[in-house]
């Protein structure tokens, strides 16, 4: 998250402010103590992250959720590097829900989000691998009566170079698990890396090209039934009445489950469940929001711009600077309501019994899912087992677990396991939305044309108040203001925050790129506007403001060099640039667009230069940059949900479109070689897309857009 | 109504309503979960399977219309020459991220290169625009299709 903008890896070892804040109520578990010697009979667990069976692949337990970002690969690489294993010798397995053993070292909870996985686990996973290696070597030393220092580990074996003796880890693991854990282990220096920094084929890919990979929807506990679901369309509404006479007659339908705010049809297969659902005659009590419209919500958000606001960041004296410098940019940027539209619709499979509960789900918050299930089931936490599956996309949607709660509520009424399948329409109409956002910007220019003051008011919901309260401080959501102060060296800065929540009953949450994606259009659009007003070329203008930010300036210079910035493009074409310093990383994006005579917008090319510190796997960095660009592009071009009669209007990919292959521009990723601590990449390229496009459209047409999605209709009128 | 359906060379008897989408027969009745549900209205392509070698959206293909056609799913596509080449290119070019849409992408791509040994960008757009990927793997899908097609020449 934006609040986690800086280098976190030092925090892990120093246990500095963030950690003590994050873990005030718990304890930091580095996962280096052996657990459960009971497990050692079959498979020795050298740490909670490493299980070594007598034969076969070493199991690496991955605390974070695999949602496409390559975390199985990333964390496995870190462990295997120190454990001296090739990646074809390991098997990545999902960690159970357990925040004490598998909580994120900085966030404290078992959360995969905010692009913090590698940053948080960079040191602990290598240390886990090194610790296990030391234990295996010690076990061999004991067995052979040789000094441990004379032995080494390579490719899953401990080797005695003096005699040529060697033993596989599997033969040493049971003994190793009984040895005392060393207090100190040395980690490799970068020059010794065999895996880190090298391209390796992703270990999760083979199962994803032949249908073998198991996502949440693929859970098939024996005897499972399938449920289709209708949730009250209006936010905060309720179920009034259901006529299920016709639905009950549908072949394969077993049961109609009526909840306070939803109806589920349980059947032998999802086809019958969906047919049964369509045959229901449901009457909803539309509730207090039943008359809401987009226009009303937009009006409320616009009105909220007037405050009252809480100061989030202050440098210098903005009021004095504004009084002295009347010339500048005054603008309001408007962001729409967004859904996530992960390819796998929300779902959850539950087998609830009097004495326990199994949950199969793909979630970014395994332990919260467990707690939610326990609460809905009326069971103690330790009676709930969460089987985390591959996620068919996360993007922040699966940081919430409303699907788990709902599925357990259905399961309470059903004998045996039940899979609750949301339709695409339910998925879009009951998302954890990125809610409306407003940015009011005032940038005043000094006599030299450079900014003398920067004032940015952020208006939007305080997600962190409920999601991670340690990041909600003194009335300020530290995430939603992330990056609002801009990365530029400006003497007087003020960021303030107006909390503006969605109507009660409408769930709002995190969306790829979190706070910085909300703020980047205003920040990078605003600085572009200032450059134009000052009559300075936009890249040169930014460079002058980055003398204290060498890494950000370096990615800017790289993208300028590689994107052909400044080269002639001809009429109707233009390039725009946007910078981002967040997630512990740096990015510079250049978009090239064409707007034809009829106002038709084509995105032709996007270049993104990134500095994310040490690269674990360059191909995954490139994948994530491409992915973030396309995700940002869909939102920039099309992302906007509307509300009528208190319900989301859009429901499928026809009226809530996303970018398809024919609209996808060429995307070029340029990576800065770096030995700095690793930064995040999962969300790094998303925030810059919309502002780079806005700035490119301005360059192409002279038309300055300040609202998303990009107003194609407005371009056509221009 | 009992239907006899040939899936990946194996015959299955399924007792479902005539209008039941093939998707749910595959996933929930037969238990082949490689074919994915994404939209239910043939707008995303996640459910793509082959019917006698032609790519169709199984979410809108009713079981009563399948008849004696041979159904092939992603679980068996590697047994065809085109499928094998597509899977190999997918691995070599690191196409996959979350992987959820990739079953459908692979089925569409395999059908494409079976009839077009040198697809142009326009050919790829025309066929593959029916398959959505939210991880944004499109540039790699394009490159991998070209590689898989080229290996068959």
UniProtKB/TrEMBL annotation, chain A:
Tell me where in this chain the Aldehyde oxidase/xanthine dehydrogenase a/b hammerhead domain is found.
Answer: 210-288
Which InterPro entries does the protein's record reference? Ald_Oxase/Xan_DH_a/b, AldOxase/xan_DH_MoCoBD1, AldOxase/xan_DH_MoCoBD2, AldOxase/xan_DH_Mopterin-bd_sf, N-heterocyclic_Hydroxylase, OxRdtase_Mopterin-bd_su_IorB, TAT_signal
Q: Which Pfam families match?
A: MoCoBD_1, MoCoBD_2
Q: Give the residue spans that cross the bilayer.
A: none
SMART domains linked: Ald_Xan_dh_C
Fetch the SUPFAM superfamilies from UniProt.
Answer: Molybdenum cofactor-binding domain (SSF56003)
Q: What name has this protein been given in UniProt?
A: Xanthine dehydrogenase family protein molybdopterin-binding subunit
From TrEMBL, chain B:
Source taxon at top rank: Bacteria
Q: Mind listing the UniProt keywords for this protein, alphabetically?
A: 2Fe-2S, Iron, Iron-sulfur, Metal-binding, Oxidoreductase
Domain spans labelled 2Fe-2S ferredoxin-type: 1-77
SUPFAM superfamilies in the record, alphabetically? Answer: 2Fe-2S ferredoxin-like, CO dehydrogenase ISP C-domain like
Question: Transmembrane segments in this chain: where?
Answer: none
What Gene3D superfamilies does the database record attribute to this sequence? 3.10.20.30, [2Fe-2S]-binding domain
Has the keyword Cell membrane been applied to this entry?
A: no
Protein name as annotated: (2Fe-2S)-binding protein
């Amino acid at each position: 998250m934006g609040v986690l903008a800086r280098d976190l890896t030092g925090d892990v070892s120093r246990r500095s402010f963030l950690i003590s804040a994050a873990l005030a109520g718990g304890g930091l578990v580095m996962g280096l103590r052996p657990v459960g010697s009971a497990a050692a009979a079959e498979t020795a667990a050298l740490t909670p992250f490493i299980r070594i069976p007598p034969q076969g692949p070493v199991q690496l337990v991955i605390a974070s959720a695999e949602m496409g970002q390559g975390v199985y690969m990333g964390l496995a690489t870190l462990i295997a590097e120190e454990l001296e294993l090739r990646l074809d010798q390991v098997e990545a397995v999902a960690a159970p829900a357990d925040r004490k053993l598998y909580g994120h070292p900085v966030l404290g909870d078992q959360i995969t989000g905010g692009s913090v996985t590698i940053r948080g686990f960079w040191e602990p996973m290598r240390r886990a691998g090194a610790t296990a290696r030391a234990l295996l070597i010690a076990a061999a030393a004991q067995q052979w009566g040789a000094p441990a220092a004379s032995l080494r580990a390579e490719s899953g074996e401990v080797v005695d170079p003096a005699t040529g003796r060697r033993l596989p880890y599997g033969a040493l693991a049971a003994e190793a698990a009984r040895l005392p854990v060393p207090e100190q282990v040395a980690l490799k220096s970068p020059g010794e890396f065999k895996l880190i920094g090298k391209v390796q084929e992703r270990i999760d890919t083979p199962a994803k090209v032949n249908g073998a990979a198991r996502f949440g929807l693929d859970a098939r506990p024996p005897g499972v039934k399938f449920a289709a679901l209708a949730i009250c369309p209006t936010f905060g509404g309720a179920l009034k009445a259901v006529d299920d006479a016709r639905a009950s007659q549908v072949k394969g339908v077993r049961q109609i489950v009526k909840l306070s705010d939803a109806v589920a049809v349980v059947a032998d297969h999802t086809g019958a469940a969906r047919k049964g659902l369509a045959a229901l005659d449901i009457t909803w009590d539309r509730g207090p929001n039943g008359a809401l419209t987009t226009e009303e919500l937009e009006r409320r958000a616009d009105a909220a711009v007037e405050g009252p606001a809480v100061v989030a960041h202050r440098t210098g004296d903005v009021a004095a600077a504004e009084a002295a410098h009347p010339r500048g940019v005054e603008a309001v940027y408007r962001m729409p309501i967004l859904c996530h539209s992960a390819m796998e619709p929300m779902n959850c499979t539950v087998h609830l019994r009097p004495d326990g509960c199994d949950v199969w789900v793909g979630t970014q918050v395994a332990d919260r899912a467990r707690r939610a299930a326990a609460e809905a089931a009326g069971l103690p936490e330790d009676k709930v087992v969460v089987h985390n599956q591959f996620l068919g996309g996360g993007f922040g949607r699966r940081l919430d677990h409303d699907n788990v709660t709902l599925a357990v509520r259905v399961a309470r009424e059903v004998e045996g396991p039940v899979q609750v399948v949301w339709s695409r329409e339910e998925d879009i109409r009951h998302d954890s939305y990125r809610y409306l956002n407003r940015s009011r910007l005032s940038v005043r220019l000094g006599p030299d044309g450079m900014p003398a003051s920067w004032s940015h008011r952020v208006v939007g919901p305080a997600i962190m108040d409920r999601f991670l309260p340690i990041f909600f401080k003194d009335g300020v959501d530290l995430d939603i203001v992330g990056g609002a102060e801009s990365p530029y060296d400006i003497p007087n800065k003020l960021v303030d925050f107006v909390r503006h929540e969605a109507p009660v009953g409408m769930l709002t949450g995190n969306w790829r790129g979190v706070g910085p994606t909300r703020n980047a259009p205003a920040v990078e659009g605003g600085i572009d506007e200032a450059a134009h007003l000052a009559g300075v070329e936009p890249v040169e203008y930014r460079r002058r403001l980055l003398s204290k930010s060498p890494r950000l300036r370096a990615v800017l210079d790289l993208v300028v060099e590689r994107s052909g910035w400044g080269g002639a493009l001809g009429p109707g074409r233009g390039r725009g640039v946007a910078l981002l310093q967040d997630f512990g990383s740096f990015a510079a994006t250049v978009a090239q667009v064409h707007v034809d005579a009829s106002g038709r917008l084509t995105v032709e090319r996007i270049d993104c230069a990134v500095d994310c510190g040490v690269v674990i796997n360059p191909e995954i960095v490139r994948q994530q940059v491409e992915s973030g660009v396309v995700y940002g592009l869909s939102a920039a071009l099309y992302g906007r949900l509307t509300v009528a009669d208190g319900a989301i209007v859009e429901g499928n990919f026809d009226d809530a479109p996303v970018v398809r292959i024919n609209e996808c521009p060429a995307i070029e990723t340029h990576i800065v070689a770096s030995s700095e601590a690793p930064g995040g990449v999962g969300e790094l390229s998303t925030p810059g897309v919309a502002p780079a496009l806005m700035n490119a459209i301005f360059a192409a047409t002279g038309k300055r857009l300040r609202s998303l999605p990009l107003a194609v209709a407005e371009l056509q009128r221009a | 109504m009992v239907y006899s359906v040939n899936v990946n060379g194996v015959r299955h008897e399924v007792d479902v309503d005539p209008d039941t989408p093939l998707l749910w027969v595959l996933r929930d009745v037969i238990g082949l979960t490689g074919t994915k549900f994404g939209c239910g209205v043939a707008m995303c392509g996640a459910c793509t399977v082959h019917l006698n070698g032609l790519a169709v959206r199984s979410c809108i293909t009713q079981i009563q219309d399948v008849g004696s056609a041979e159904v092939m799913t992603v679980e068996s596509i590697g047994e065809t020459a085109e499928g094998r080449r597509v899977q190999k290119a997918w691995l070599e070019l690191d196409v996959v991220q979350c992987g959820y849409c990739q079953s459908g992408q692979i089925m569409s791509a395999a059908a494409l290169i079976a009839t077009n040994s040198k697809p142009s960008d326009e050919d790829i757009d025309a066929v593959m625009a029916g398959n959505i990927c939210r991880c944004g793997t499109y540039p790699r899908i394009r490159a991998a299709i070209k590689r898989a097609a080229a290996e068959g020449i």
